[in-house]
Amino acid sequence: xxxxxxxxxxWHRKHVDSGKRWLGGSPxxxxxxxxxxxxxxxxxxxxxGNHECIYIGQAxxxxxxxxxxxxxAHALDDRLFCLWERxxxxxxxxxxxxxxxxxxxxxxxDVYVVEALDTLESVGIYLxxxxxxxxxxxxxxxxxxxxxxxxxxxxxxxxxxxxxxA
Length: 166
Fold this sequence. Notes:
- Helix content is 29%, strand content 19%.
- By secondary structure, the protein is of the alpha+beta class.
């Protein structure tokens, strides 16, 4: 599934701003500008304060809202509102497709069973982090990783020396 795009692990809930519809992510060091992933179609996981996966869901299908809307609902409106602190997601649209509202199905083209299985296995392992799985990288070929911009900026401002060494 070469066109799967994803986020970095464990974005913080506090940056799902209920007043502004924005999920800002920046690609790995110096590889581009901040992008908005609010309208992403994705599989996502919600995590408690101790990083336990408490919920896995999907966003952006015919039956569900886009990623931001699903996260906002979990934060404010449903039984999970007080149980999660962080989230991670694996999206299907590139940033340029989101900007241009290009909803062409990126998965339906040239996907082979072995790629689909590797990717689904990798996403499942990455979301759940079962302690006996070590292999999850094989399904993430041609993936762009995004860091939650707001949290990265907070860390950079509070711990500049530590981030320079990373």
